[in-house]
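Ticket #4471: structure export looks truncated?
Reporter: QA, pipeline team
Priority: medium

Steps to reproduce: submit the single chain below to the structure queue and open the exported record.
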Amino acid sequence: MIPRPAQAHPPSVAVQQPDSILVVDDDQVVRVLLRELLLAEGYAVSEAGTAEQAERQLRKKAWDLVLLDRRLPDCDGLLLLQTIKDKCDCPVIILSVLDDEHDRTLGLGLGAQDYITKPFSATELSLRIRNLLLARNASPLPLPSREIEYGCFRLIQTTRRLIVSGVVHQLTLAETRLAAVFLTHPGEILDRNLLTQSICHREWSHNDRSIDVLVARLRKYLEPNPKFPRWIVTVHGAGYLFNPDADVDSSISP
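Actual output as written to the record:
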Protein backbone atom coordinates (compact mmCIF):
# COMPACT_ATOMS: atom_id res chain seq x y z
CA MET A 1 0.00 0.00 0.00
CA ILE A 2 1.37 3.34 -1.01
CA PRO A 3 1.31 5.70 1.95
CA ARG A 4 -0.65 8.88 1.47
CA PRO A 5 1.37 12.06 1.53
CA ALA A 6 1.01 14.02 4.72
CA GLN A 7 -1.58 16.76 4.38
CA ALA A 8 -0.32 20.24 4.98
CA HIS A 9 -2.21 21.98 7.73
CA PRO A 10 -3.24 25.57 6.97
CA PRO A 11 -1.49 28.11 9.12
CA SER A 12 -3.45 29.10 12.19
CA VAL A 13 -5.05 32.47 11.98
CA ALA A 14 -5.58 34.54 15.10
CA VAL A 15 -9.26 35.32 15.55
CA GLN A 16 -9.81 38.98 16.23
CA GLN A 17 -12.01 39.54 19.23
CA PRO A 18 -14.92 41.94 18.73
CA ASP A 19 -14.80 45.30 20.47
CA SER A 20 -16.60 45.17 23.80
CA ILE A 21 -19.14 47.83 24.74
CA LEU A 22 -20.74 48.37 28.14
CA VAL A 23 -24.22 49.95 28.09
CA VAL A 24 -25.08 51.77 31.34
CA ASP A 25 -28.73 52.92 31.36
CA ASP A 26 -31.56 52.52 33.87
CA ASP A 27 -34.18 52.22 31.09
CA GLN A 28 -34.54 48.57 30.14
CA VAL A 29 -36.18 49.43 26.81
CA VAL A 30 -33.20 51.61 25.85
CA ARG A 31 -30.78 48.87 26.91
CA VAL A 32 -32.58 46.31 24.74
CA LEU A 33 -32.58 48.63 21.73
CA LEU A 34 -28.90 49.43 22.16
CA ARG A 35 -27.98 45.78 22.67
CA GLU A 36 -29.76 44.74 19.46
CA LEU A 37 -28.15 47.59 17.52
CA LEU A 38 -24.64 46.84 18.80
CA LEU A 39 -24.92 43.07 18.37
CA ALA A 40 -26.03 43.60 14.78
CA GLU A 41 -22.86 45.68 14.27
CA GLY A 42 -20.72 42.80 15.56
CA TYR A 43 -19.82 44.16 19.00
CA ALA A 44 -19.74 42.22 22.27
CA VAL A 45 -22.26 43.86 24.60
CA SER A 46 -22.95 43.85 28.33
CA GLU A 47 -25.44 45.94 30.29
CA ALA A 48 -25.83 47.68 33.64
CA GLY A 49 -28.91 49.42 34.99
CA THR A 50 -27.26 51.15 37.96
CA ALA A 51 -23.90 52.65 38.86
CA GLU A 52 -23.30 49.77 41.27
CA GLN A 53 -23.86 47.20 38.52
CA ALA A 54 -21.61 49.18 36.19
CA GLU A 55 -18.81 49.24 38.75
CA ARG A 56 -19.01 45.44 39.02
CA GLN A 57 -18.75 45.17 35.22
CA LEU A 58 -15.79 47.54 35.21
CA ARG A 59 -13.96 45.31 37.67
CA LYS A 60 -14.46 42.25 35.48
CA LYS A 61 -12.59 43.34 32.36
CA ALA A 62 -11.24 46.20 30.28
CA TRP A 63 -13.90 47.65 27.98
CA ASP A 64 -13.34 49.21 24.58
CA LEU A 65 -16.17 51.76 24.93
CA VAL A 66 -18.91 52.71 27.40
CA LEU A 67 -22.33 54.19 26.63
CA LEU A 68 -23.32 56.09 29.77
CA ASP A 69 -26.68 57.52 30.77
CA ARG A 70 -26.71 60.64 32.95
CA ARG A 71 -29.74 59.76 35.06
CA LEU A 72 -29.00 56.60 37.01
CA PRO A 73 -31.10 55.60 40.03
CA ASP A 74 -28.17 55.55 42.46
CA CYS A 75 -26.04 58.46 41.20
CA ASP A 76 -25.46 61.01 38.45
CA GLY A 77 -23.70 59.36 35.52
CA LEU A 78 -21.03 62.05 35.66
CA LEU A 79 -19.95 60.73 39.06
CA LEU A 80 -19.50 57.31 37.49
CA LEU A 81 -17.50 58.83 34.62
CA GLN A 82 -14.39 59.27 36.78
CA THR A 83 -14.61 55.64 37.92
CA ILE A 84 -14.78 54.52 34.31
CA LYS A 85 -11.71 56.57 33.45
CA ASP A 86 -9.83 55.15 36.45
CA LYS A 87 -10.75 51.52 35.75
CA CYS A 88 -10.32 51.39 31.99
CA ASP A 89 -8.87 53.89 29.57
CA CYS A 90 -11.66 53.76 27.02
CA PRO A 91 -13.89 56.23 25.15
CA VAL A 92 -17.17 57.18 26.84
CA ILE A 93 -20.28 58.45 25.06
CA ILE A 94 -22.85 60.10 27.31
CA LEU A 95 -26.47 59.49 26.32
CA SER A 96 -28.83 61.92 28.01
CA VAL A 97 -32.13 63.76 27.74
CA LEU A 98 -30.29 66.77 29.21
CA ASP A 99 -29.44 68.90 26.18
CA ASP A 100 -28.38 72.13 27.84
CA GLU A 101 -25.01 73.49 26.67
CA HIS A 102 -23.78 73.52 30.29
CA ASP A 103 -24.54 69.80 30.68
CA ARG A 104 -22.78 69.01 27.41
CA THR A 105 -19.72 71.10 28.29
CA LEU A 106 -19.58 69.57 31.77
CA GLY A 107 -19.69 66.00 30.45
CA LEU A 108 -17.05 66.62 27.81
CA GLY A 109 -14.88 68.56 30.25
CA LEU A 110 -14.94 65.66 32.73
CA GLY A 111 -13.55 63.29 30.14
CA ALA A 112 -16.36 61.96 27.95
CA GLN A 113 -15.42 61.68 24.28
CA ASP A 114 -18.93 62.45 23.01
CA TYR A 115 -22.34 63.63 24.24
CA ILE A 116 -25.51 62.57 22.43
CA THR A 117 -28.98 63.70 23.47
CA LYS A 118 -32.00 61.42 23.56
CA PRO A 119 -33.84 60.55 21.41
CA PHE A 120 -30.95 59.79 19.07
CA SER A 121 -30.48 58.41 15.60
CA ALA A 122 -29.32 54.79 15.59
CA THR A 123 -27.33 55.43 12.41
CA GLU A 124 -25.58 58.48 13.90
CA LEU A 125 -24.78 56.64 17.13
CA SER A 126 -23.35 53.70 15.19
CA LEU A 127 -21.10 56.01 13.17
CA ARG A 128 -19.87 57.87 16.24
CA ILE A 129 -19.05 54.60 18.00
CA ARG A 130 -17.17 53.32 14.97
CA ASN A 131 -15.20 56.55 14.59
CA LEU A 132 -14.20 56.60 18.27
CA LEU A 133 -13.01 53.00 18.19
CA LEU A 134 -11.01 53.65 15.00
CA ALA A 135 -9.48 56.82 16.42
CA ARG A 136 -8.56 55.19 19.72
CA ASN A 137 -5.41 53.64 18.24
CA ALA A 138 -4.67 56.41 15.78
CA SER A 139 -3.70 59.39 17.91
CA PRO A 140 -1.82 62.04 15.87
CA LEU A 141 0.31 62.79 18.93
CA PRO A 142 1.41 59.47 20.49
CA LEU A 143 2.35 59.93 24.12
CA PRO A 144 5.47 58.39 25.70
CA SER A 145 4.92 56.02 28.61
CA ARG A 146 7.96 57.24 30.54
CA GLU A 147 8.13 60.01 33.08
CA ILE A 148 8.45 63.45 31.52
CA GLU A 149 10.56 66.25 32.99
CA TYR A 150 10.82 69.78 31.72
CA GLY A 151 12.30 72.52 33.86
CA CYS A 152 10.44 72.61 37.16
CA PHE A 153 7.76 70.23 35.83
CA ARG A 154 7.75 66.47 36.28
CA LEU A 155 4.85 64.30 35.04
CA ILE A 156 4.49 60.67 36.17
CA GLN A 157 1.94 59.26 33.75
CA THR A 158 1.49 55.87 35.42
CA THR A 159 0.20 57.51 38.61
CA ARG A 160 -1.15 60.68 36.94
CA ARG A 161 0.90 62.94 39.20
CA LEU A 162 2.22 66.31 38.13
CA ILE A 163 5.00 67.75 40.29
CA VAL A 164 5.56 71.50 39.93
CA SER A 165 8.53 72.89 41.88
CA GLY A 166 8.16 70.06 44.40
CA VAL A 167 4.36 70.43 44.81
CA VAL A 168 2.41 67.27 43.85
CA HIS A 169 -0.89 67.54 41.98
CA GLN A 170 -3.15 64.55 41.22
CA LEU A 171 -4.52 64.76 37.68
CA THR A 172 -7.37 63.10 35.85
CA LEU A 173 -6.61 60.91 32.83
CA ALA A 174 -7.52 63.66 30.35
CA GLU A 175 -5.45 66.23 32.28
CA THR A 176 -2.49 63.83 32.26
CA ARG A 177 -2.72 63.39 28.51
CA LEU A 178 -2.91 67.13 27.93
CA ALA A 179 0.03 67.81 30.25
CA ALA A 180 2.08 65.15 28.44
CA VAL A 181 1.32 66.74 25.07
CA PHE A 182 2.38 70.20 26.28
CA LEU A 183 5.53 68.97 28.04
CA THR A 184 6.68 67.02 24.97
CA HIS A 185 5.86 69.81 22.49
CA PRO A 186 7.21 73.00 24.11
CA GLY A 187 7.23 76.07 21.91
CA GLU A 188 4.78 74.56 19.39
CA ILE A 189 1.37 76.04 18.63
CA LEU A 190 -1.14 73.19 18.94
CA ASP A 191 -4.57 73.76 17.44
CA ARG A 192 -7.77 72.61 19.15
CA ASN A 193 -8.54 69.98 16.53
CA LEU A 194 -5.15 68.29 17.00
CA LEU A 195 -5.51 68.42 20.79
CA THR A 196 -9.08 67.12 20.68
CA GLN A 197 -8.06 64.17 18.51
CA SER A 198 -5.10 63.35 20.75
CA ILE A 199 -6.83 63.80 24.12
CA CYS A 200 -10.48 62.98 23.39
CA HIS A 201 -10.12 60.82 20.24
CA ARG A 202 -12.68 62.78 18.22
CA GLU A 203 -12.85 65.67 15.78
CA TRP A 204 -13.13 69.17 17.20
CA SER A 205 -16.22 71.29 16.50
CA HIS A 206 -16.75 75.00 17.10
CA ASN A 207 -19.10 74.44 20.07
CA ASP A 208 -16.77 71.89 21.67
CA ARG A 209 -15.11 73.50 24.71
CA SER A 210 -13.69 70.34 26.30
CA ILE A 211 -10.06 71.29 25.52
CA ASP A 212 -10.64 74.82 26.84
CA VAL A 213 -12.01 73.36 30.08
CA LEU A 214 -9.02 71.03 30.41
CA VAL A 215 -6.56 73.86 29.74
CA ALA A 216 -8.22 76.01 32.40
CA ARG A 217 -7.92 73.17 34.92
CA LEU A 218 -4.28 72.50 34.00
CA ARG A 219 -3.42 76.18 34.36
CA LYS A 220 -4.45 76.00 38.02
CA TYR A 221 -1.60 73.53 38.59
CA LEU A 222 1.06 75.04 36.33
CA GLU A 223 0.56 78.78 36.44
CA PRO A 224 1.57 81.10 39.30
CA ASN A 225 -1.47 83.20 38.38
CA PRO A 226 -4.02 81.25 36.27
CA LYS A 227 -5.94 84.47 35.46
CA PHE A 228 -2.83 85.81 33.68
CA PRO A 229 -1.19 82.67 32.24
CA ARG A 230 2.48 82.86 31.28
CA TRP A 231 3.27 79.26 30.39
CA ILE A 232 0.12 77.90 28.71
CA VAL A 233 -0.94 80.78 26.52
CA THR A 234 -3.78 81.17 24.06
CA VAL A 235 -2.82 81.97 20.48
CA HIS A 236 -6.01 83.53 19.20
CA GLY A 237 -7.31 81.89 16.04
CA ALA A 238 -4.68 79.14 16.27
CA GLY A 239 -4.75 77.19 19.55
CA TYR A 240 -2.50 76.89 22.58
CA LEU A 241 1.23 77.19 23.20
CA PHE A 242 3.27 75.78 26.09
CA ASN A 243 6.03 78.36 26.48
CA PRO A 244 7.74 77.88 29.88
CA ASP A 245 11.11 79.32 28.90
CA ALA A 246 10.03 82.86 28.07
CA ASP A 247 7.56 85.54 29.03
CA VAL A 248 4.42 85.96 26.99
CA ASP A 249 5.18 87.36 23.57
CA SER A 250 3.43 90.58 22.61
CA SER A 251 1.73 88.82 19.71
CA ILE A 252 0.20 86.21 22.02
CA SER A 253 -2.56 87.12 24.42
CA PRO A 254 -4.00 85.11 27.32
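Status: closed, not a bug. The export was complete when the record was re-opened. Leaving a note from the reviewer for reference: The chain has two domains: 20-136, 148-242.
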